[in-house]
Write a structure and sequence with these properties.
By secondary structure, chain A is of the alpha/beta class. In chain A, 33% of the residues lie in helices and 20% in strands. In chain A, helix 6 crosses helix 11. Classes of the chains: A alpha/beta, B mainly alpha.
Chain lengths: 409, 82
């Protein structure tokens, strides 16, 4: 049983929805700029991939606004988009066989910041009762479950930037057990002073103030990443439930490893090999790799070595579409899976914006312009700080492959 | 305290529901359930009553006060007792 990804809900700096995102990817549009939500000038970096036009009142009932952080508003909007995209009306699924799995890096950072300000400046009586859940990592899962009446498993994963992909991997596990439909993925935002402090304090972010050059994965000038906000939630279904409705892709293989302090990059290579074996595909079958593209020289070098070790030097096209919007916390890996789905559906590899080849990664064959062609099998990579590695293999749905073969014969 | 003041507190806590206009649609006897107030929202109502109106109520009043009118009665009782 290979689960089908049937609907995508996307929120990015380019707006809400699949179409503005895909168009921006093909145009290599830059979604990175100076932060507008607060004064970023006081921090090591003031650049971000910010979704500037978002007004939650355009998308959500007013009743939900006082009790939700921006991250939960993104999550609810992305979930609605995914269900609509999959043509699954509310209530048409078995509520007890339908699950939610999301990931989070910081929970409701901004909500928590406001309540801490109230606590310290005015006292405990001024802390909102909604603080009991609105800051919390599991809040998106809970609010999605309540709003759409999904009463199967409800899970929240925290594994740094691999989280979004881990959630989709967990969805596959849930479908094997007792579910027929899972809403899975992640959204993240750290765009408030409290969240931003948590990120900038680690010293891994780019200090280059130029939005066009600050985040340059696999470049010899890479000096850190830029943070962005948004992410993707998707409908993952048992193929028998999805029936004749179209699917973007099948989840063919998935693996996770953890390096801990052994930071030689071998954990990523192992995750790739296990995911390929799980998918029952050879390295030579992979049409493109969506790389993690951390954006520091050391992390980029390690990833390039892992890809080279499996595919051989220049053995596979590599792309990092997130270069245009930055790393979306744990949600970047969910968005990469969604982007791989779109690449398979549209048979185009989206480019890596503003790419300059790195000396150390010179063997990598990085895609720097939209590349139409055969996209049947995609490998997506993700890493988190501290040694998290994940790899997922997505393939064109087998029903469509059979049709393709029928046409060519 | 009158019902208008309490309604203002309710609106502040929960936001205006798109389908329910608290000012005109809600009679004082409409249940909190029907206007979409869950237990956390009601705790926040008690918070606001304490903070902005000096009304100290114990959480367990919510077991009996299921409507705005009933909550208003409890508030008046507390005030009389104090």
């Amino acid at each position: 049983m290979k689960p089908h990804i049937t609907g995508l809900g996307i929120v990015t700096p380019f707006g809400v929805g699949v179409d503005p995102y895909w168009t921006a990817l093909l145009d290599s549009t830059n979604g990175i700029g100076p932060i507008t939500r607060f004064d970023g000038g006081k921090y090591a970096t003031g650049l971000a991939g910010e979704h500037t036009g978002f007004d939650p009142r355009d998308h959500l009932p007013a009743r939900l606004l006082p009790q939700t952080d921006r991250v939960t508003q993104f999550a609810l909007v992305a979930t609605r988009e995914a269900l609509d995209d999959a043509a699954i009306p509310d209530g048409t699924y078995s509520e007890h066989a339908s699950a939610v799995v999301t990931a989070n890096n910081g929970g409701g950072f901004e909500f928590a910041q406001k309540e801490m300000q109230a606590l310290w400046s005015r006292g405990p009586a001024h802390v909102s009762a909604y603080q009991s859940f609105a800051w919390f990592y599991a809040v998106n899962t809970g609010q999605i479950s309540i709003r759409h009446n999904l009463r199967g498993a409800a899970r929240a994963l925290v594994t740094d930037d691999t989280g979004g992909m881990e959630a989709i991997g967990q969805a596959r596990r849930q479908l094997r057990h007792d579910c027929e439909l899972v809403l899975a993925g992640a959204v993240d935002t750290n765009l408030c002073p409290w969240g931003w402090s948590a990120y900038t304090s680690a010293g891994l972010m780019a200090t280059d103030p130029d939005p066009r050059t600050a985040y340059r994965p696999f470049s010899p000038h890479a000096d850190g990443f830029v943070s962005g906000e948004g992410g993707a939630i998707m409908t993952v279904e048992r193929p028998d439930r999805a029936g004749a409705r179209p699917a973007y892709a099948e989840i063919a293989g998935f693996a996770s490893t953890f390096d801990g302090v052994a930071r030689d990059g071998r954990g990523l290579e192992r995750a790739i090999r296990v995911a390929l074996r799980d998918a029952e595909v050879d390295a030579g079958d992979v049409d493109v790799v969506f790389a993690d593209g951390f954006g520091t020289r050391e992390m980029d070098d390690r990833e390039a070595r892992a890809i080279d070790a499996v595919f051989g030097p220049g053995g596979v096209p590599v792309t990092v579409p997130k270069t245009g919007i930055g790393r979306l916390g744990c949600a970047g890996s969910a968005l990469d899976v969604a982007t791989a789905c779109l690449a398979i559906a549209k048979q185009v590899v989206p480019p890596t914006p503003r790419y300059q080849l790195s000396d150390a990664a010179s063997a990598l064959r990085v895609v720097d312009h939209p590349a139409p062609g055969r996209v049947h099998t995609v490998l997506v990579l993700a890493r988190g700080r501290g040694g998290f590695n994940s790899a997922m293999v997505l393939t064109k749905p087998h029903t469509e492959l059979r049709q393709d073969n029928g046409r060519t014969q | 305290m009158n019902i208008d003041t309490l309604t203002a507190v309710l609106r502040k806590v929960a936001g205006e529901d798109d389908n329910v206009d608290l000012a005109t649609d809600v009679s004082p006897d409409t249940s909190f359930d029907d206007i979409g107030f869950d237990s956390i929202a009601l705790l926040e109502v008690l918070n606001l009553l304490k903070r902005e109106h000096g009304v100290l109520l114990d959480d367990d009043v919510l077991e009996h006060a299921k409507t705005p009118a009933a909550l208003l009665d409890v508030i008046e009782e507390e005030r009389d007792a104090a």
